[in-house]
Amino acid sequence: MRQIDDALREALIATAEAMADAARAAILPHFRADGLSADNKAGHGFDPVTVADRDSEQAMRAVLADRRPEDGILGEEYGDVAGTTGLTWVIDPIDGTRAFMSGTPTWGVLIAVSDARGPVLGLIDQPYIGERFLGGLGEARLDGPAGRRVLKTRAPRPLPEAILFTTFPEVGTPEDGAAFRRVADRARLTRYGMDCYAYALLAAGQIDLVIEAGLHAYDIQGPMAVIEAAGGLVTDWRGAPCPMGGRVLAAANPEIHAEALALLQA
């Protein structure tokens, strides 16, 4: 495992910010633009990708080629690049392409840099709103239209007072969906369709839980680092680390995590 000194810490944060800036510039001309089309990557169902996804990832890879050419890359659209430093950039150029196509500002750019243990720094960027959530390496902050503030997750509260988010109502397999509903039936409020912005709201102290299934590494590593830096925790549905995705439980604090985990496993 590579040690991260002050100089490397500053370089990694600056690189993540530069990548997010480049992605914003590549994406925003396409958002709510006339004539935006999408290709379907799925063999069945609908898994869209647009020119904005591709332009965003290419822009971020160009920043890495300039600033961190020896690091590895794991990206959604253009695959993996092996590195030699022990650090890998895990990038999702647009998380929530369905939302992007629909004109709703709940999509985002996800960036993480990881070592052998998992993400050490993460970033969730919402270009249209102008909000950037960054966490890890001693940072937990939101920069947005209202300025900068520290990110901190919500204090403990019982599940009947909690707010739960997910993206798709079916939440994976029928068995996964049944487990999710055991939690949702107890929560005060359940909301759907928020994509990565749900994780940002959890880190910002607005909600208590995000529960999803079928995620990839590039879907969760950025949000994981941000949430953990803000005081929350992210595991799989067994309580184990989940840097490669799968079934994910993100919680504002250990107490609400334990309550939700028990219901998922019931």
From TrEMBL:
Biological process (GO) annotations held by this record are: inositol metabolic process; signal transduction
- The answer to whether the entry has keyword Acetylation is no
Report which residue ranges the record marks as coiled coil: none
Under CDD domains, the record lists: Bacterial_IMPase_like_1 (cd01641)
* Record keyword Magnesium present: yes
What cofactors does the UniProt entry give for this protein?
Mg(2+)
Q: Which domain of life is it from?
A: Bacteria
Family annotation (InterPro entries): Inositol_monoP_metal-BS (IPR020583), Inositol_monophosphatase-like (IPR000760)
Q: Which SUPFAM superfamilies match?
A: Carbohydrate phosphatase (SSF56655)
The record's similarity note reads: Belongs to the inositol monophosphatase superfamily.
* Protein name (Swiss-Prot/TrEMBL): Inositol monophosphatase family protein
Q: Which lineage ranks, top first, belong to the organism behind this chain?
A: Bacteria, Pseudomonadati, Pseudomonadota, Alphaproteobacteria, Rhodobacterales
